[in-house]
Design goal:
CATH class of the largest domain: Alpha Beta
Number of helices: 14
Shape: globular
Number of strands: 24
Helix content: 25-40%
CATH topology of the largest domain: BirA Bifunctional Protein, domain 2
Oligomer: single chain
Bound molecules: zinc ion
Number of domains: 2
Length: 455
């Protein structure tokens, strides 16, 4: 991977690749689109599932102290009173008196409309929660909100989870799910959208141990991004100043990524203290406490919260993986996606459409597809097919040729090094599984023509 890949990956190139190859489409495109809403295409949905799967494995499956949860999007309206969202989840909105564009007052540089220079209205507070009605009557009594964060679903289930799972502090509850915020100024593709997906974990600890757990989780979360291939020079940690802390937070650090539009938040890690459980105890009247049987004390745990965006991480993974190299057909675009994230793991490429070759290739395809995502491609030259797979980040291509009929072996070609190895068909599945698990690829470097015989 070249050093200046980030500068190569402009947002225009990423958006264009995403549409061309079926990662991400504009929502309702045939109707002209809907503001900042996006749909994940056949490759995008695989990538997104892989991002969530990598998070779930890292945060839950490989640990003893975190369990999962999946709560409803619609919750009792009092939840958002307790959490402070009804009162405080607002942005100051101003409108241009000339062109009627709306802006977030706190994000503006001057006192004029950035678009036309017109005069702006006085700011009014605008709640970012989407409101809807439950049941057939649309009145104040039936108002519910689409959740603006997944965290509250965790807090209100604190006792259910702790009791049913017989948990002792410290322990965490994690969930992935859709979240809605009626942002005044969404933008930058899938970076800021009104409907998005969060990956959040609330880690409950004994008060007094919260600072060391905060440090621990900051390091863990940084290591997750690096472990999935994000270059460390494109990641940084930004502790919040006292003046920018959210009302619930004792301290907070953002993991930031160097996006094409500059350093921006990828994930926030907050020490929420006992704010949420205290608030829910007050408003619900149900005491949400922990009984420490070692010290015989009742207390409200403190909470460390790493809160990441699925869409935002996916965008960072795409940008960091994007690369271009000159080749004889112009430009070779490669996504150096981590093998755990790549939408397609293996492509099966028969070098001939003759029945004896394609029959073997199809048999190989059906033996591999139960194990991982595969693609079968027998159209155009082998060079073109390699390019297509490189562009979507497929780590391994398997070519089947006439020699395969003699030696019962196939060639595996690795995306980044373009090295090749010859493997007996009988061993193929095990070899690919080992490579996908991270075994080094020790092969021959192919020439510019890619080594494999032409179709
Ligand atoms: Zn204006």
């Amino acid at each position: 991977m070249t050093e200046n890949s980030t500068t190569k990956a402009t947002m225009e190139k990423i958006v264009s690749l995403c549409k061309r190859r079926g990662f991400i489409f504009q929502s309702s495109e045939i109707y002209g689109g809907l503001g900042s809403c996006w749909d994940y295409g056949p490759l995008g949905v695989e990538l997104k599932r892989n991002v969530k799967e990598a998070w779930w494995r890292f945060m839950i499956r490989e640990r003893d102290d975190v369990v999962g949860l999946d709560t409803a999007i619609l919750m009792h309206p009092q939840v958002w009173v307790a959490s402070g969202h009804v009162q405080g989840f607002t942005d100051p909105l101003v409108e241009c008196k000339a062109c009627h564009l709306r802006w977030r007052a706190d994000a503006l540089q001057g006192i004029k409309c950035p678009s036309c220079g017109g005069e702006l209205t006085e700011p009014r507070m605008f709640n970012l929660m989407f409101k809807t009605f439950m049941g057939p009557v649309e009145d104040a009594a039936s108002v519910v909100y689409l959740r603006p964060e997944t965290a509250q679903g965790i807090f209100v289930n604190f006792e259910n989870v702790m009791m049913s799972q017989r948990r002792k502090l410290p322990f965490g509850i994690a969930q992935i799910g859709k979240t809605f915020r009626n942002e005044i100024t969404p933008g930058n593709f899938i970076f800021r959208t009104r409907e998005f997906e969060q990956m959040e974990m609330e880690f409950f600890v004994k008060p007094g141990t919260d600072e060391q757990w905060f440090t621990y989780w900051v390091e863990q979360r940084l290591s997750w991004y690096k472990g999935l291939g994000i270059r460390k020079e494109n990641l940084r940690l930004r502790p919040h100043g006292r003046d920018e802390l959210a009302h619930y937070a004792r301290c907070c650090s953002d993991v930031e990524y160097l996006f094409p539009m500059g350093w921006s938040e990828l994930e926030g890690i907050a020490n929420r203290g006992d704010f949420d459980l205290t608030q829910h105890s007050k408003v619900s009247g149900k005491r949400l406490e922990y009984f420490d049987d070692e010290t015989n004390e009742h207390y409200i745990p403190y909470v460390i919260e790493p809160s990441a965006g699925v869409d935002r991480s996916l965008l960072a993974f795409l940008i960091d993986a994007y690369d271009e190299e000159p080749d004889k057909e112009g430009t070779r675009v490669i996504l150096h996606l981590h093998r755990d994230l790549a939408p397609v793991k293996v492509a099966i490429l028969p070098l001939s459409r003759k029945e004896e070759v394609s029959g073997v290739a199809r048999k190989i395809h059906s033996s591999l597809r139960p194990c991982f995502m595969t693609q079968y491609d027998d159209t155009q030259s082998i060079g073109r097919r390699y390019r297509r797979q490189d562009e979507i980040g497929t780590p391994f291509c398997v070519t089947v040729d006439f020699q395969s009929l003699e030696d019962h072996a196939v060639t595996i070609r690795e995306r980044d090094s373009m090295k090749q190895i010859r493997v007996p068909i009988a061993d193929l599945k095990q070899v690919v599984l080992a490579k996908l698990a991270g075994e080094p690829f020790e092969g021959q470097t192919a020439t510019a023509g890619e080594g494999a015989s032409k179709a």
